[in-house]
Amino acid sequence: MLLIVLVVAGVGAFAYASTSVPTMKEDALVATTTVYYSDGTTVMGELNNGIDRKPLTAEQMPQAAKDAAVASEDRTFYENKGVSVTGIGRAVWGVITGNSDLGGGSTITQQYVKNITGNDQRAYTRKATEAIQALKVDQKYSKDQILTSYLNTVYFGRGAYGIGAATEAYFGPDVDPTQLTHEQAAFLIGILPAPSAWDPATDTGGNAQKRYTYVMGALQGMGKISADEVAANPTIPTIAEQLKPQWFQGPNGYVLQSVVDEVKGLDNGLTVATLDGGSQRVTTSDQVATSGLSIVSTIDATKQQAAIDTMNDKNAYPTSGRPDTVRAGLVSIDPATGGVVAMYGGPDPLGATTGVNAITQASAQAGSTFKPITLLAALDDPAAASP
């Protein structure tokens, strides 16, 4: 018996020593880049390659979300070392009794490891490796760092990764994720086991409501909210309609693409921090779109809309109107700074047959291009222009 114990201990020690702290898979590093108009607050578009993540710092992470995650997913989170023997036992009992609310046995730290490695293989070896990695993650990082990283990487459905993007996806862009209420957090954390299936927009079985009720009860059980709060909020908060904006659709699509091209083409390169604490140089369109940048453009929202309205008015063209065969473009530049304040490169880069920007990519006769400059010089100094 002693020999068996020594062999098991030796194997365990070898497995622990040979297992490294997990590194993030590429998808887990993705963060949504937001492009603003010149006012710095009006959003022109969001770039994310289909993975919407708006990371929050530990200071920004709402306490309500932390409370709901711990209450629902891992009530011993602050006491365990990354794995929980009681959690595993509870999960086994849940399987025996058919009570899925008892959880799957994985701690928040283990779920975080699965999120960042992308390893969801159904195998005992994966669970064993995951448990060892969770132990090492718990030793390397603080509980607040782990919980923050978990809430920034977990998938909430609607293309949203992390609580920041999920808040916007389910409650609209006007709701500040840092001010999330316990009711809103209870809904978001509640749907985590099956976010796409339990989205209220498509859920016909009332699962979102059941999970919301469960998490609210768990929060009360941990003393985070009162019985009165639970009674006053019996149903899930109002959920926004699911929106799937096509940021690159329409005239502004050309502007956004020009912004991306300019950022990736910066002479000295742009180096940004990544979610794993590292850094990367931004040199490709994909990296611009997924580095979590906040880009304030020189485009004036009012002038841009005026440019679009003007180019859409074909009757503004002399005589009989602008023919459909004419590819027209418009650019307005601030002469004091050289900044582009409005640009119309075409009606729609996604719908055009060529997708060519009439301003930045199309070619034109140089003579005709310089005529306005000559005429402006003549207007500025009529005497010099006289024969």
Compose a concise summary of this entry.
This protein has 387 residues and is mainly α. The chain is 43% helix and 9% strand.
Explain what this protein looks like in three dimensions.
The chain has 387 residues and is mainly alpha-helical. The protein has a domain at 252-385. The chain is 43% helix and 9% strand. The chain is built from 15 helices and 9 strands. It has helices at residues 2-18, 63-73, 85-97, 108-117, 124-140, 143-153, 163-171, 182-190, 207-221, 227-232, 252-264, 285-289, 301-312, 366-380, 382-385; strands at residues 33-36, 43-47, 52-53, 160-161, 270-273, 279-282, 294-296, 330-333, 340-344. The strands form 4 sheets. It has a 3-stranded mixed beta sheet with strand order 2-1-7, with helices on one face.
How many helices? The count is 15
Radius of gyration: 28 Å
The coarse overall form would be elongated
Low-confidence stretches: 1-18
Q: Tell me the distance between the termini.
A: 113 Å
Strand content: 5-15%
SS class: mainly alpha
SSE sequence, one letter per element: HEEEHHHHHEHHHHHEEHEHEEHH
Mean pLDDT: 81
Strand order of the largest sheet: 2-1-7
Quaternary structure classification = single chain
Helix content: 40-55%
Q: What is the β-strand count?
A: 9
Largest sheet features: 3 strands, mixed
Write the layout of secondary structure elements.
Elements: H1 2-18, E1 33-36, E2 43-47, E3 52-53, H2 63-73, H3 85-97, H4 108-117, H5 124-140, H6 143-153, E4 160-161, H7 163-171, H8 182-190, H9 207-221, H10 227-232, H11 252-264, E5 270-273, E6 279-282, H12 285-289, E7 294-296, H13 301-312, E8 330-333, E9 340-344, H14 366-380, H15 382-385
Parallel strand pairs: 1-7, 3-4
Antiparallel strand pairs: 1-2, 5-6, 8-9
Helix pairs in contact: 2-8, 2-9, 4-5, 4-6, 8-9
